[in-house]
Amino acid sequence: MGEGDEEPGFIQLEFEELPADEMLSRARDFYKQMDTRRTTRHFSNREVPRELIELAIKTASTAPSGAHLQPWTFVAISNPEVKAQIREAAEAEERKTYSERMPEAWAEVLRPLGTDHVKEHLSDAPWIVVVFRQSKRQRDSGEWGPTYYAQESCGIAAGLFIAAIHNMGLTTLTHTPSPMGFLRDILNRPEHEHAMLVMPVGYPDEGAKVPNLGRKSLGNISEFFD
Ligand SMILES: Cc1cc2nc3c(=O)[nH]c(=O)nc-3n(C[C@H](O)[C@H](O)[C@H](O)COP(=O)(O)O)c2cc1C
After folding, report:
1. Most distant CA pair in the chain: distance in Å?
2. How many whole angstroms separate alpha carbon 196 and alpha carbon 130?
3. What is the pLDDT of residue 20?
4. What does residue 118 show for φ and ψ, rounded to 5 degrees?
């Protein structure tokens, strides 16, 4: 598009082309950094400033989203009473899941992770961030309409949140207590918001452990048509 072709509602894309060698070194460095991310279930109760959590949420909200509806609400909790309520309700559900509701096919893949119904991270970590997916939005007319690809959009936003937390030198756990309807009640969210992920954020505890897992190789996760 040439000068003078401005369309209302559009602005010039800001794009800085990088030299080829810099692209490669940045790509390698980012991969290396992200490859050190791990999910630990052992958190320290050391404080984390609210501004870091705000920045991680802002980073998450740079995610692309279906029709740019940004169909997410991030609820950040540092209040110890609210964290205790969440832990109690999550453990009550998880106790039933682990003892009664979990099919063997699920139990078999969880065994190497060493998880159980006890969720210390929900009270130990200084912050818990809960991602809610919005299934509806209010139209200009005041009527309610659907959101589009909200699952995918929130998944991408959560990925950016996790990357932001790792990049700032903290750790988070992607926790999915099942079912998690209790979060809407405790956190006072509206009917059209559905809790998706519970992410404690903080420093790892001293001596925190992680399962000894490998990651699939490029050949196992991709197919190229050159
Ligand atoms: C959608 C999703 C749900 C998860 N749910 C749980 C969970 O409920 N409890 C838990 O301890 N870890 C949970 N995890 C963490 C995974 O177990 C962990 O990411 C996986 O074992 C790989 O380990 P890594 O993150 O260290 O690479 C979840 C991860 C994802 C992406």
Report:
1. 67
2. 7
3. 98
4. -85, 125
Taking the centre of ligand 1 as the mean of its atom positions, its distance from the CA of residue 29, in whole angstroms, is: 24
Q: How far is CA 183 from CA 95, 113, 151, 191, 193, in A?
A: 16, 24, 18, 11, 10
27 Cβ contact partners less than 8 Å away, ≥ 6 residues apart = none
Q: What is the DSSP track for 59-90?
A: HHTTS--GGG---EEEEEE--HHHHHHHHHHH
Give pTM, 2 decimals. 0.96
**40 CA closest ligand 1 atom index:** 26
**Ligand 1, atom 29, residue with closest C-alpha:** 174
pLDDT of residue 6: 77
List pLDDT tens digits, range 86-140: 999 999 999 999 989 899 999 999 999 988 899 999 999 999 999 999 999 999 9
**Residue 98, both tokens:** 């682990």
Ligand 1 pocket mutation, candidates 33, 37, 39, criterion most atoms within 8 A of CB: 39
